[in-house]
Amino acid sequence: MQFILFAALFSVSVSIALKLYRQYGLNILHLLTLNYITASVLCFLWFKPTFNVVQLKNSWWLVGALAVILPSIFWCLDRALHHAGLIKTEIAQRLSVVLTILVSTLIYQEQFSSLKIFGIVLGVVAVLIMLIGQGSAKSSQSVATWLSILSVWIGYAVIDLLFKYTSGLGLQFAMSLNAIFICSAILCLITSLFQSQALTLKTLLAGVILGALNFANIAFYLYAHRELSDSPALVFASMNIMVVCLGVLAAVLIFKEQLNKNRAIGGMLAIVAVLILMQSM
Fold it and tell me: Would residue 113 be called left, alpha or beta, if left means φ above 0 and alpha means ψ between -120 and 50 degrees?
């Protein structure tokens, strides 16, 4: 279970780092570029993938799609943390699994059990409850909050589905992940060249730290699945619940976010939804 705890800690640390970096005014595009460069290097050194040119050539569109979507959703995550705060963002990110399970069930024509339907509905309700109560905010701020939360919720579900499809093609995970990281780094680097803002030493160090945290989250999550290979549902549920709980603690203690009624109810419903979906798996 220690691997799940470490994975959850590093997952929340990525969001904390992004929120802190924004407060210091660091360039998000430079951070993303350095994040994927660092993650690419660590992935290659740690997993030592063997690159199969034929496999990559046949699935170039999938690698390319993920290479575009990953940094795009990372940017959406940054916007969500700014507009909606850490609590809502972490819950929305974890509840993306609701959409993943829903779409997977439809695509692969799996049977809808009453338990799975209840878990999916409860997860959707949790997201909607968190988004209720924006009326006191400015209209533009309310719209930005809705859009940022929904983009994280839908975006992470799309990423999960694409990675699931990648594994279904028989691609070696370490190889495909490394290829995606490299392509994302190249894409972000090319895009950053059109910016006039110069790279600073502070941004360089921050980007490397972000990449290390991001990779550590993935690595420990994979180790958790390897350690508890007979209980994938337990890993899934424990990871999501720990991230929600740790995210709420970090938001309240570090960023002094208010744990109002909607956020508390949304968080509790999210945990219950994850437990129900675990039982349905």
Answer: beta
pLDDT digits (tens, 9 = 90+) for 178-199: 999 999 999 999 998 888 788 8
What is the tens place of the pLDDT at every residue in 145-170?
788 888 998 998 898 888 878 776 76
Distance between CA 178 and CA 192 in Å, rounded?
21
d(CA 49, CA 53): 12
Helices (H), the chain: 2-23, 28-47, 53-58, 60-83, 86-94, 96-107, 114-131, 139-168, 173-192, 201-227, 232-253, 261-280
d(CA 162, CA 112): 21
Residue 97 near residue 160 (C-beta atoms within 8 A):
yes
User: Count of CB atoms within 10 A of residue 87's CB?
Assistant: 26
C-alpha distances (whole Å) from 180 to each of 56, 215, 272 are 10, 13, 33
> Which conformational region is residue 213 in: left (phi greater than 0), alpha (psi within -120 to 50 degrees), or beta?
alpha
Q: What is the 3-state secondary structure (H, E, C) of 107-133?
A: HCCCCCCHHHHHHHHHHHHHHHHHHCC
